[in-house]
Amino acid sequence: MIPVGSVHGRFQPFHNEHLEYVLAAKKRCGFLWIGITKHDITSADLNLLGAHRELPQNNPLTFFERVEMIREALLDAQVSPGEFSFTPFPIEMPAHLPNFLPNVIPCFTTICEEWNRRKIKVLMDLGYSVEVLWERESKAITGSIIRGHLVEGSSDWRSMVPPATAKAIDRLDLGARLRALQVAVRKP
Q1: Can you name the residues that pair with 111 across neighbouring β-strands?
Q2: What is the 3-state secondary structure (H, E, C) of 84-100?
Q3: Is the dihedral of CA 165, 170, 175, 176 positive or negative?
Q4: What single string gives the DSSP state of each residue in 128-176?
Q5: Within 13 Å, how many C-alpha atoms sit on residue 45's CB side?
Q6: How far is Cα of residue 15 from the mean position of the Cα atoms in its chain?
Q7: Whole-number Å distance between alpha carbons of 72 and 95
Q8: Which one of 19, 45, 99, 182 has the fewest CB atoms closer than 10 angstroms to its CB?
């Protein structure tokens, strides 16, 4: 076990596979920094590193909303509040990343798609040590799938998220927010 480690993701929204990832990393360190990528959802600058991930309809939740959602899910999972914290993690602007998380803090990650390999290269080029927790051929749950169910008004997403995420989605009326974002994107 190491003293401090980190994980990162957009968490739009935080789902069961995210929880699995964060808990696996937490087992490997005493304190865990949870990096929130695309922390500024109002930014119109698209970065080629992950351009589709930066579109407004793919980023309906603010930094604060994601922090609260993840915090509640981790507390429900019996993680002590003194064993984790949050930081912006601008992987979409790699030169800014060390301003938020020093490169002496190891990064835990997973590989489920080519995007993960590109992020690992970016992190290693910045001097971060990276530990891959697991590699899988695909993801069973994605934010895109959940957001799609919400737009359609389906409740199928509920089994894909921790109870804290479900409460936040209901409270924030995320389905309506996503439908409004889709309408805004379609307008010329």
Answers
A1: 135
A2: EEEEECCCCCHHHHHHC
A3: negative
A4: --EEEEEE-SS-S--HHHHHHHHHHT-SGGGGGS-HHHHHHHHHHTHHH
A5: 8
A6: 9
A7: 31
A8: 45
Query: What is the total residue count of the chain?
Result: 188
Containing H/E element for 186?
helix 174-186
Instruction: Tell me the domains of the chain and their CATH numbers.
Output: 2-186 (3.40.50.620)
CA distances from 45 to 1, 12, 31, 166, 186 (A): 38, 18, 32, 30, 19
Provide the residue-wise pLDDT of the chain in tens; the chain has 188 residues.
Answer: 999 999 999 999 999 999 999 999 999 999 999 999 999 888 655 554 555 566 778 899 999 999 999 999 999 999 999 999 999 999 988 999 999 999 999 999 999 988 899 999 999 999 999 999 999 988 899 999 999 999 999 999 999 999 999 999 999 999 999 999 887 655 55
Q: How far apart are CA 188 and CA 186, in angstroms?
A: 6
**DSSP 3-state assignment of 63?**
helix
Encoding tokens for residue 149?
């169910």
Task: Let me know: does 57 contact 178? Beta carbons within 8 Å.
Answer: yes
Dihedral over Cα of 121, 29, 137, 69: its sign: negative
Q: Strand order in 29-36's β-sheet?
A: 84-88, 29-36, 2-9, 107-111, 130-135
